[in-house]
Design goal:
With 439 residues, the chain is an alpha/beta fold. The chain is built from 15 helices and 10 strands. Strand 6 (287-290), helix 13 and strand 7 form a beta-alpha-beta unit.
Length: 439
Protein backbone atom coordinates (compact mmCIF):
# COMPACT_ATOMS: atom_id res chain seq x y z
CA UNK A 1 0.00 0.00 0.00
CA UNK A 2 1.36 3.43 -0.96
CA UNK A 3 0.41 6.92 0.20
CA UNK A 4 -3.20 7.84 -0.67
CA UNK A 5 -3.64 9.55 -4.03
CA UNK A 6 -5.02 12.67 -2.32
CA UNK A 7 -2.26 12.76 0.32
CA UNK A 8 -1.52 16.26 1.65
CA UNK A 9 2.18 16.82 1.04
CA UNK A 10 2.99 20.19 2.55
CA UNK A 11 4.93 22.45 4.82
CA UNK A 12 3.91 24.51 7.80
CA UNK A 13 4.39 27.94 9.32
CA UNK A 14 2.90 30.16 12.02
CA UNK A 15 1.79 33.77 11.78
CA UNK A 16 3.93 35.02 14.66
CA UNK A 17 7.01 33.37 13.19
CA UNK A 18 6.82 34.55 9.58
CA UNK A 19 4.41 37.43 9.01
CA UNK A 20 6.08 40.48 10.49
CA UNK A 21 3.96 43.53 9.78
CA UNK A 22 3.96 44.08 13.53
CA UNK A 23 1.50 47.00 13.65
CA UNK A 24 0.62 47.24 9.94
CA UNK A 25 -2.92 47.87 8.72
CA UNK A 26 -4.51 48.00 12.15
CA UNK A 27 -2.93 44.96 13.74
CA UNK A 28 -2.35 45.13 17.52
CA UNK A 29 0.46 43.37 19.43
CA UNK A 30 0.39 39.80 20.62
CA UNK A 31 2.24 38.38 23.61
CA UNK A 32 5.04 37.39 21.24
CA UNK A 33 5.74 40.88 19.90
CA UNK A 34 4.81 43.25 22.73
CA UNK A 35 8.07 44.95 23.80
CA UNK A 36 7.04 45.04 27.47
CA UNK A 37 6.84 41.23 27.53
CA UNK A 38 9.79 40.31 25.30
CA UNK A 39 12.52 42.13 27.25
CA UNK A 40 15.30 39.74 28.35
CA UNK A 41 13.40 36.69 27.14
CA UNK A 42 14.50 36.31 23.48
CA UNK A 43 17.98 35.37 22.27
CA UNK A 44 20.01 38.43 21.23
CA UNK A 45 17.02 40.64 22.14
CA UNK A 46 15.49 39.78 18.76
CA UNK A 47 11.81 40.28 17.93
CA UNK A 48 9.34 39.00 15.32
CA UNK A 49 8.36 42.55 14.32
CA UNK A 50 9.65 41.95 10.78
CA UNK A 51 10.45 38.20 10.83
CA UNK A 52 10.25 36.94 7.23
CA UNK A 53 8.08 39.88 6.15
CA UNK A 54 5.59 37.36 4.80
CA UNK A 55 2.81 39.90 5.32
CA UNK A 56 4.26 41.88 2.41
CA UNK A 57 6.01 39.09 0.47
CA UNK A 58 3.33 36.39 0.50
CA UNK A 59 2.97 36.38 -3.31
CA UNK A 60 6.63 35.47 -3.70
CA UNK A 61 6.30 32.86 -0.98
CA UNK A 62 3.28 31.19 -2.58
CA UNK A 63 5.16 31.07 -5.87
CA UNK A 64 8.04 29.30 -4.11
CA UNK A 65 5.59 26.79 -2.64
CA UNK A 66 4.32 26.13 -6.14
CA UNK A 67 7.84 25.75 -7.51
CA UNK A 68 8.80 23.12 -4.94
CA UNK A 69 5.61 21.20 -5.55
CA UNK A 70 3.66 21.55 -2.31
CA UNK A 71 0.02 20.53 -2.63
CA UNK A 72 -0.87 21.84 0.84
CA UNK A 73 0.27 24.54 3.24
CA UNK A 74 -0.42 24.78 6.93
CA UNK A 75 -0.67 28.41 8.04
CA UNK A 76 -2.00 30.11 11.13
CA UNK A 77 -4.18 33.18 11.53
CA UNK A 78 -3.07 36.01 13.80
CA UNK A 79 -5.91 36.68 16.22
CA UNK A 80 -4.70 40.23 16.84
CA UNK A 81 -4.53 40.95 13.09
CA UNK A 82 -8.15 39.87 12.65
CA UNK A 83 -9.44 41.30 15.96
CA UNK A 84 -7.03 44.02 17.15
CA UNK A 85 -9.38 44.92 20.02
CA UNK A 86 -12.22 43.06 21.75
CA UNK A 87 -15.16 42.69 19.38
CA UNK A 88 -13.45 44.77 16.67
CA UNK A 89 -13.00 43.07 13.29
CA UNK A 90 -10.18 44.39 11.12
CA UNK A 91 -11.22 44.25 7.42
CA UNK A 92 -7.61 44.58 6.25
CA UNK A 93 -6.58 41.65 8.39
CA UNK A 94 -9.34 39.49 6.93
CA UNK A 95 -8.44 40.67 3.42
CA UNK A 96 -4.83 39.55 3.88
CA UNK A 97 -5.87 35.99 4.66
CA UNK A 98 -8.51 35.90 1.92
CA UNK A 99 -5.94 37.05 -0.64
CA UNK A 100 -3.33 34.59 0.61
CA UNK A 101 -5.76 31.66 0.50
CA UNK A 102 -7.01 32.66 -2.95
CA UNK A 103 -3.40 32.61 -4.20
CA UNK A 104 -2.88 29.18 -2.64
CA UNK A 105 -6.01 27.92 -4.37
CA UNK A 106 -4.83 29.33 -7.69
CA UNK A 107 -1.58 27.40 -7.21
CA UNK A 108 -3.50 24.17 -6.40
CA UNK A 109 -2.26 24.26 -2.82
CA UNK A 110 -4.75 23.16 -0.13
CA UNK A 111 -4.84 25.60 2.81
CA UNK A 112 -4.82 24.08 6.30
CA UNK A 113 -5.69 26.82 8.78
CA UNK A 114 -4.59 26.81 12.41
CA UNK A 115 -6.69 29.18 14.48
CA UNK A 116 -4.29 29.56 17.41
CA UNK A 117 -0.53 29.11 17.20
CA UNK A 118 0.55 30.70 20.48
CA UNK A 119 0.07 34.40 19.62
CA UNK A 120 -2.49 35.58 22.19
CA UNK A 121 -3.51 39.22 21.64
CA UNK A 122 -2.15 41.57 24.28
CA UNK A 123 -5.65 42.91 24.91
CA UNK A 124 -6.73 39.39 25.91
CA UNK A 125 -3.62 38.83 28.02
CA UNK A 126 -4.14 42.11 29.87
CA UNK A 127 -7.66 40.96 30.75
CA UNK A 128 -6.45 37.69 32.26
CA UNK A 129 -5.56 35.67 29.17
CA UNK A 130 -5.91 31.92 29.55
CA UNK A 131 -6.48 32.39 33.28
CA UNK A 132 -9.81 34.14 32.60
CA UNK A 133 -12.71 31.80 31.79
CA UNK A 134 -14.22 34.51 29.56
CA UNK A 135 -11.50 33.75 27.03
CA UNK A 136 -13.47 30.70 25.93
CA UNK A 137 -16.15 33.00 24.55
CA UNK A 138 -13.64 35.52 23.17
CA UNK A 139 -12.02 32.69 21.25
CA UNK A 140 -15.35 31.40 19.98
CA UNK A 141 -16.21 34.91 18.67
CA UNK A 142 -12.84 35.12 16.92
CA UNK A 143 -13.28 31.66 15.39
CA UNK A 144 -16.75 32.58 14.17
CA UNK A 145 -15.34 35.68 12.45
CA UNK A 146 -12.58 33.73 10.71
CA UNK A 147 -14.79 30.84 9.66
CA UNK A 148 -17.49 33.11 8.27
CA UNK A 149 -14.88 34.99 6.23
CA UNK A 150 -12.70 32.09 5.02
CA UNK A 151 -14.70 28.86 5.00
CA UNK A 152 -15.91 29.26 1.44
CA UNK A 153 -12.36 28.35 0.40
CA UNK A 154 -10.99 26.57 3.50
CA UNK A 155 -11.93 22.99 4.43
CA UNK A 156 -9.16 21.95 6.87
CA UNK A 157 -9.15 23.54 10.34
CA UNK A 158 -6.90 23.10 13.37
CA UNK A 159 -8.09 24.68 16.60
CA UNK A 160 -4.87 24.80 18.66
CA UNK A 161 -1.20 24.14 18.13
CA UNK A 162 0.65 22.45 20.97
CA UNK A 163 -1.23 23.42 24.13
CA UNK A 164 1.51 21.45 25.90
CA UNK A 165 3.92 24.20 24.94
CA UNK A 166 1.94 27.44 25.18
CA UNK A 167 0.51 26.39 28.54
CA UNK A 168 3.30 24.20 29.94
CA UNK A 169 6.05 26.61 28.98
CA UNK A 170 4.02 29.81 28.99
CA UNK A 171 2.32 29.45 32.36
CA UNK A 172 4.33 26.81 34.26
CA UNK A 173 8.05 26.97 33.43
CA UNK A 174 8.04 30.53 32.09
CA UNK A 175 10.20 29.71 29.07
CA UNK A 176 7.65 30.94 26.51
CA UNK A 177 5.34 33.95 26.35
CA UNK A 178 3.75 35.21 28.52
CA UNK A 179 6.74 33.97 30.60
CA UNK A 180 4.78 33.14 33.76
CA UNK A 181 5.74 30.49 36.29
CA UNK A 182 3.67 28.48 38.71
CA UNK A 183 3.93 25.21 40.59
CA UNK A 184 0.29 25.35 41.74
CA UNK A 185 -1.71 22.38 40.35
CA UNK A 186 -4.93 24.36 40.64
CA UNK A 187 -3.53 27.16 38.42
CA UNK A 188 -2.39 24.65 35.82
CA UNK A 189 -5.79 22.95 35.89
CA UNK A 190 -7.56 26.30 35.46
CA UNK A 191 -5.73 27.28 32.28
CA UNK A 192 -5.99 23.72 30.99
CA UNK A 193 -9.75 23.78 31.46
CA UNK A 194 -10.07 27.12 29.67
CA UNK A 195 -8.08 25.95 26.64
CA UNK A 196 -10.10 22.73 26.44
CA UNK A 197 -13.41 24.58 26.69
CA UNK A 198 -12.23 27.05 24.04
CA UNK A 199 -11.40 24.13 21.76
CA UNK A 200 -14.80 22.53 22.26
CA UNK A 201 -16.66 25.77 21.64
CA UNK A 202 -14.51 26.42 18.54
CA UNK A 203 -15.38 23.02 17.07
CA UNK A 204 -19.08 23.73 17.58
CA UNK A 205 -18.71 27.12 15.87
CA UNK A 206 -16.87 25.65 12.89
CA UNK A 207 -19.51 22.96 12.42
CA UNK A 208 -22.31 25.52 12.67
CA UNK A 209 -20.82 28.25 10.49
CA UNK A 210 -18.59 26.60 7.87
CA UNK A 211 -19.72 27.16 4.28
CA UNK A 212 -17.64 24.20 3.07
CA UNK A 213 -18.02 20.86 4.90
CA UNK A 214 -15.13 21.09 7.37
CA UNK A 215 -12.38 18.73 8.42
CA UNK A 216 -11.48 19.62 12.02
CA UNK A 217 -8.56 18.54 14.16
CA UNK A 218 -6.01 19.70 16.66
CA UNK A 219 -2.19 19.70 16.61
CA UNK A 220 -0.85 18.54 19.97
CA UNK A 221 2.66 17.36 20.68
CA UNK A 222 3.99 15.33 23.57
CA UNK A 223 6.82 12.94 24.30
CA UNK A 224 6.73 9.71 22.30
CA UNK A 225 8.86 6.80 23.42
CA UNK A 226 10.04 4.20 20.92
CA UNK A 227 10.49 0.50 21.75
CA UNK A 228 14.05 -0.76 22.07
CA UNK A 229 13.01 -3.98 20.32
CA UNK A 230 9.84 -4.97 18.50
CA UNK A 231 8.80 -7.50 21.07
CA UNK A 232 5.26 -7.18 22.38
CA UNK A 233 6.57 -6.32 25.85
CA UNK A 234 8.84 -3.50 24.64
CA UNK A 235 6.15 -2.07 22.37
CA UNK A 236 3.68 -2.02 25.25
CA UNK A 237 6.23 -0.39 27.53
CA UNK A 238 6.89 2.38 24.98
CA UNK A 239 3.16 2.92 24.40
CA UNK A 240 2.42 3.26 28.11
CA UNK A 241 5.34 5.64 28.64
CA UNK A 242 4.15 7.78 25.72
CA UNK A 243 0.73 8.24 27.29
CA UNK A 244 1.78 8.63 30.91
CA UNK A 245 0.74 11.77 32.78
CA UNK A 246 3.85 13.97 32.66
CA UNK A 247 5.01 17.19 34.33
CA UNK A 248 3.76 20.60 33.22
CA UNK A 249 0.80 19.27 31.17
CA UNK A 250 3.39 18.00 28.72
CA UNK A 251 1.99 14.63 27.68
CA UNK A 252 -0.50 14.05 24.88
CA UNK A 253 -2.93 12.26 27.18
CA UNK A 254 -3.34 15.33 29.45
CA UNK A 255 -5.08 17.10 26.58
CA UNK A 256 -6.24 14.52 24.09
CA UNK A 257 -7.81 11.95 26.39
CA UNK A 258 -10.45 14.51 27.47
CA UNK A 259 -10.74 16.08 24.00
CA UNK A 260 -11.03 12.86 21.99
CA UNK A 261 -12.02 10.16 24.46
CA UNK A 262 -13.93 12.20 27.04
CA UNK A 263 -11.70 10.79 29.80
CA UNK A 264 -9.82 12.87 32.37
CA UNK A 265 -6.34 12.19 33.73
CA UNK A 266 -6.45 11.82 37.51
CA UNK A 267 -4.92 15.26 38.30
CA UNK A 268 -7.70 17.03 36.36
CA UNK A 269 -10.70 15.21 37.82
CA UNK A 270 -11.22 17.65 40.74
CA UNK A 271 -11.29 20.62 38.36
CA UNK A 272 -13.25 19.60 35.25
CA UNK A 273 -16.89 18.59 35.52
CA UNK A 274 -18.96 16.17 33.46
CA UNK A 275 -20.76 19.20 32.03
CA UNK A 276 -17.39 20.66 30.98
CA UNK A 277 -16.53 17.39 29.24
CA UNK A 278 -19.74 17.58 27.18
CA UNK A 279 -18.38 20.80 25.67
CA UNK A 280 -14.74 19.70 25.51
CA UNK A 281 -15.24 16.32 23.83
CA UNK A 282 -16.48 17.15 20.34
CA UNK A 283 -16.22 14.82 17.31
CA UNK A 284 -13.04 15.42 15.30
CA UNK A 285 -12.23 14.44 11.72
CA UNK A 286 -8.50 13.88 12.07
CA UNK A 287 -5.75 13.77 14.68
CA UNK A 288 -2.80 16.06 14.02
CA UNK A 289 0.42 15.81 15.95
CA UNK A 290 3.84 17.44 15.96
CA UNK A 291 6.81 15.13 16.44
CA UNK A 292 10.56 15.53 16.07
CA UNK A 293 12.44 13.01 18.19
CA UNK A 294 12.07 9.95 20.36
CA UNK A 295 11.83 10.78 24.04
CA UNK A 296 14.16 7.84 24.75
CA UNK A 297 17.13 10.14 24.22
CA UNK A 298 15.86 13.33 25.84
CA UNK A 299 17.95 14.99 28.55
CA UNK A 300 15.29 17.52 29.46
CA UNK A 301 15.10 16.35 33.06
CA UNK A 302 18.76 15.50 33.59
CA UNK A 303 21.19 12.80 32.51
CA UNK A 304 19.78 10.01 30.38
CA UNK A 305 21.66 6.70 30.36
CA UNK A 306 20.30 5.90 26.88
CA UNK A 307 22.28 8.78 25.37
CA UNK A 308 25.44 7.45 23.78
CA UNK A 309 28.57 9.17 22.42
CA UNK A 310 28.03 10.36 18.87
CA UNK A 311 24.24 10.29 19.02
CA UNK A 312 23.08 12.03 15.81
CA UNK A 313 21.64 15.41 16.67
CA UNK A 314 20.19 18.42 14.90
CA UNK A 315 21.47 21.97 15.29
CA UNK A 316 18.83 22.31 18.02
CA UNK A 317 20.51 19.44 19.89
CA UNK A 318 17.51 17.18 19.30
CA UNK A 319 18.17 13.49 18.66
CA UNK A 320 17.64 12.27 15.09
CA UNK A 321 15.40 9.22 15.47
CA UNK A 322 13.47 8.44 12.26
CA UNK A 323 11.63 5.52 13.84
CA UNK A 324 9.66 7.94 16.01
CA UNK A 325 7.51 8.89 13.02
CA UNK A 326 6.30 5.32 12.63
CA UNK A 327 5.71 4.65 16.32
CA UNK A 328 4.06 7.99 17.06
CA UNK A 329 1.68 7.49 14.12
CA UNK A 330 0.89 3.95 15.23
CA UNK A 331 0.49 4.78 18.92
CA UNK A 332 -1.75 7.82 18.37
CA UNK A 333 -3.96 5.91 15.96
CA UNK A 334 -4.25 2.94 18.31
CA UNK A 335 -5.33 5.22 21.15
CA UNK A 336 -7.54 7.78 19.40
CA UNK A 337 -8.80 5.95 16.28
CA UNK A 338 -8.77 9.04 14.07
CA UNK A 339 -7.08 9.56 10.68
CA UNK A 340 -3.59 10.93 11.27
CA UNK A 341 -1.96 14.09 9.95
CA UNK A 342 1.67 14.83 10.80
CA UNK A 343 1.26 18.56 11.36
CA UNK A 344 4.94 19.25 12.14
CA UNK A 345 8.14 17.31 11.59
CA UNK A 346 11.54 18.65 10.59
CA UNK A 347 15.03 19.56 11.68
CA UNK A 348 17.15 22.60 12.47
CA UNK A 349 20.37 22.56 10.47
CA UNK A 350 23.46 24.75 10.20
CA UNK A 351 22.46 26.35 6.91
CA UNK A 352 24.08 29.22 5.03
CA UNK A 353 24.39 30.45 1.45
CA UNK A 354 27.55 28.94 0.00
CA UNK A 355 30.01 30.28 -2.54
CA UNK A 356 27.91 29.03 -5.46
CA UNK A 357 24.89 30.96 -4.17
CA UNK A 358 23.05 27.82 -3.09
CA UNK A 359 22.15 26.26 0.26
CA UNK A 360 23.35 22.66 0.40
CA UNK A 361 21.73 20.80 3.30
CA UNK A 362 22.33 17.05 2.84
CA UNK A 363 21.57 16.38 6.50
CA UNK A 364 18.02 17.67 6.07
CA UNK A 365 17.59 15.75 2.82
CA UNK A 366 18.55 12.53 4.62
CA UNK A 367 16.32 13.45 7.59
CA UNK A 368 13.28 13.85 5.32
CA UNK A 369 13.96 10.58 3.50
CA UNK A 370 14.49 8.54 6.66
CA UNK A 371 11.54 9.96 8.58
CA UNK A 372 9.18 9.61 5.62
CA UNK A 373 10.22 5.98 5.11
CA UNK A 374 8.96 5.37 8.62
CA UNK A 375 5.71 7.19 7.89
CA UNK A 376 5.34 5.06 4.76
CA UNK A 377 5.66 1.95 6.91
CA UNK A 378 2.65 3.12 8.93
CA UNK A 379 0.68 3.70 5.72
CA UNK A 380 1.62 0.26 4.40
CA UNK A 381 0.32 -1.28 7.62
CA UNK A 382 -3.08 0.25 6.95
CA UNK A 383 -3.02 3.25 9.28
CA UNK A 384 -5.04 6.07 7.68
CA UNK A 385 -2.53 8.91 7.27
CA UNK A 386 -3.94 11.92 5.42
CA UNK A 387 -0.99 14.29 5.31
CA UNK A 388 2.55 15.34 6.22
CA UNK A 389 3.50 18.96 6.89
CA UNK A 390 7.24 19.55 7.01
CA UNK A 391 8.30 22.14 9.59
CA UNK A 392 8.92 24.58 8.23
CA UNK A 393 8.32 26.08 4.82
CA UNK A 394 10.98 28.73 5.43
CA UNK A 395 13.42 29.74 8.12
CA UNK A 396 11.68 31.88 10.71
CA UNK A 397 11.55 33.36 14.19
CA UNK A 398 12.02 30.38 16.49
CA UNK A 399 10.30 31.83 19.56
CA UNK A 400 12.63 32.43 22.52
CA UNK A 401 15.57 31.18 20.45
CA UNK A 402 15.26 34.08 18.02
CA UNK A 403 16.61 33.52 14.52
CA UNK A 404 19.53 31.18 15.17
CA UNK A 405 17.68 27.92 14.44
CA UNK A 406 16.92 27.26 10.77
CA UNK A 407 14.23 24.65 10.03
CA UNK A 408 13.13 25.85 6.59
CA UNK A 409 13.02 24.33 3.14
CA UNK A 410 13.68 27.90 2.03
CA UNK A 411 16.57 29.95 3.40
CA UNK A 412 15.78 33.52 4.50
CA UNK A 413 18.45 36.22 4.69
CA UNK A 414 16.88 38.29 7.46
CA UNK A 415 18.87 41.42 6.54
CA UNK A 416 17.72 41.52 2.91
CA UNK A 417 14.70 39.15 3.02
CA UNK A 418 16.13 37.30 0.02
CA UNK A 419 14.81 33.76 -0.25
CA UNK A 420 16.95 30.83 -1.45
CA UNK A 421 15.44 27.41 -2.01
CA UNK A 422 17.56 24.78 -0.27
CA UNK A 423 18.60 21.50 -1.88
CA UNK A 424 16.30 19.58 0.47
CA UNK A 425 13.27 21.35 -1.00
CA UNK A 426 14.02 20.02 -4.47
CA UNK A 427 14.44 16.50 -3.09
CA UNK A 428 11.13 16.88 -1.24
CA UNK A 429 9.59 17.91 -4.56
CA UNK A 430 10.70 14.60 -6.10
CA UNK A 431 9.10 12.71 -3.21
CA UNK A 432 5.85 14.62 -3.71
CA UNK A 433 5.88 14.05 -7.49
CA UNK A 434 6.16 10.28 -6.97
CA UNK A 435 3.68 10.32 -4.06
CA UNK A 436 6.42 8.80 -1.91
CA UNK A 437 7.11 5.85 -4.25
CA UNK A 438 10.79 6.85 -4.53
CA UNK A 439 11.39 6.55 -0.79
Amino acid sequence: MSFPKDFLWGAASAAAQVEGGYLDDGRSPSIWDAPELLADHIAHDETPHVACDHYHRWREDVDLMRQIGLNSYRLSVSWSRVMPQPGQVNPKGIAFYRDLIAALRDADIEPIVTLYHWDLPMWAYEDGGWENEQITDWFADYVRTVVEMLSDTVKWWITFNEPQMFIGRGYVTGLNAPFQKTDDPAELAKVTRNVMLAHGKAVKVIRACAKTPPKIGMAPTGPVYTPTTETEADIRKAYEASFAVMPNAEGACWWMDPIVLGKLPEPLKPYISDQDLETICQPLDFYGFNVYQSRNYSEQYGKNPAVYPGLPRTAFDWAITPEVLYWSTRFHYERYHLPIMVTENGMANTDFVMEDGKVHDPQRTDFIHCYLKNLKRAVEEGIPVVGYQYWSFMDNFEWANGYDRRFGLVYVDYLTQKRTVKDSAWIYKEIIQTNGENL
